[in-house]
Structures are given as C-alpha cells and as structure tokens.
Design a protein that fits this description.
Helix content is about 70%, strand content about 0%. The protein has helices spanning about 5-25, 35-55, 60-65, 70-85.
Length: about 90
C-alpha cells in the first residue's frame, strides 16, 4: 500500500527534529556546588538571628528601632532566600 504525502512529510519532520536535537549543544550544569550548604545555612541563621534580636532587644538597637516592622520582612526575607538557595543543592 503506498504511503500518503502527509505521512512522508511527518517522517521527514521527525528526522529533522532528531538531527537538530543531536546537534544542539547541551549546557552542562556545574559539577560541584559545595558552596551551597554553608551559604544557605548562614543566610537562614542570619534571618532567624535578625528576628530574635528584633524581638528581644529591638528598642535598644538604634537601626532596628528606626526600621520598625520592616525588621520582620528582613528576617523572613533572609529565611526565604535560604530556602531558595537550598533548592540549588544537589
């Protein structure tokens, strides 16, 4: 049974696609990410420490008393940044 034109063109398209995929250069991820665990632990602990200092001695620290409730955003932002860094860990 003869093949239809659409079937031939579909086969050709698949061959071209396979060739393009084979030719495409793959970007290799960095093999070593040893810097990630110490970095995300440090950033997370800084965020927690910022919140603890704000709640315990916020009025006594001049910069923290000027920032007011923005201190909560800074502490939570540090913890969120640590979580974002943790997703880079392999």
């Amino acid at each position: 049974m003869p093949e239809s034109r659409t079937r031939k063109s579909a086969d050709e398209k698949q061959k071209v696609k396979k060739q393009q995929v084979a030719k495409a250069k793959k970007v290799k991820a960095p093999s070593s990410r040893r810097w990630v665990p110490p970095t995300f632990i440090t950033v997370g602990l800084l965020g927690v420490a910022w919140l603890i200092v704000y709640y315990v001695a916020g009025d006594a620290v001049p910069l923290m008393s000027d920032l007011g409730n923005w201190n909560i955003l800074i502490g939570m932002g540090g913890m969120a940044a640590a979580f974002g860094l943790a997703t880079l860990w392999r």
